[in-house]
Design brief:
Structural Genomics Hypothetical 15.5 Kd Protein In mrcA-pckA Intergenic Region, Chain A
Length: 198
């Protein structure tokens, strides 16, 4: 016996991990469904979720956006033109606005082109330690190009792209960079973009 007193043992407390949220994001009012399924932590703030949606869908974060959850609007309040109805998105988490599976809310991007997305909480699950969040699990079809005129403009854009005899075919292809495949979706590329988020 050394005469040293031993500190009392503290009980081991297991902290339950915050659930991961599996979300399905669907771009509304377009000819063929453009959607992504992502996994994010429930503690993600809405301003961070905005960036995840941008990268997962293929947008360029070049325009204003807003979330609407059960009548509450969240976004980036304009200090020059304050709108008392818009709450700061960085002050609220996904878990706070959508606490359980089945919840639906809207993500509105580009107030000029009016791209409306439906976000559905498909389920919450125990996070896996080996997975890195956020991540994209699946998706279909390419995101429309920015500034093409919203859903009606995108329909006109696709018509011109698909028909080589269309009077604007060559001009539209040049504008979009030479080619556009509306059916394209690259899961690996999306996850690379998500991994690069700071």
């Amino acid at each position: 016996m050394t005469g040293r007193s031993r500190a009392p043992r503290r009980p081991v407390v297991k902290h339950q991990s915050e659930p991961a949220y599996r979300l399905k994001i669907t771009l509304l009012e377009v000819e063929a469904s453009v959607w992504r399924r992502i996994l994010v932590p429930g503690t993600i703030s809405l301003d961070r979720l905005h960036m995840v949606i941008q990268k997962a869908m293929g947008w360029e974060n070049a325009h204003l956006h807003e979330f609407t959850v059960e009548g509450r609007r969240f976004g980036e309040p304009d200090l020059d033109e304050p709108d008392e109805n818009v709450e700061p998105e960085w002050k609220v988490t996904l878990r706070e606005v959508a606490p359980e599976a089945g919840r639906r809310f809207e993500y509105f991007y580009d107030f000029g082109d009016s791209w409306m997305h439906e976000v559905v909480v498909e389920r919450t699950e125990v996070p896996e330690e080996e997975l890195r969040y956020p991540m994209c699990l699946a998706g279909e079809r390419s995101c429309p190009p920015e500034d093409c005129g919203g859903p009606p403009g995108y329909a006109d854009f696709l018509e011109a792209v698909r028909d080589p005899r269309h009077p604007e075919h060559n001009e539209i292809l040049a504008w979009v960079g030479g080619a556009f495949d509306p059916e394209a979706f690259d899961l690996t590329a999306v996850n690379l973009k998500l991994r690069l988020l700071k």
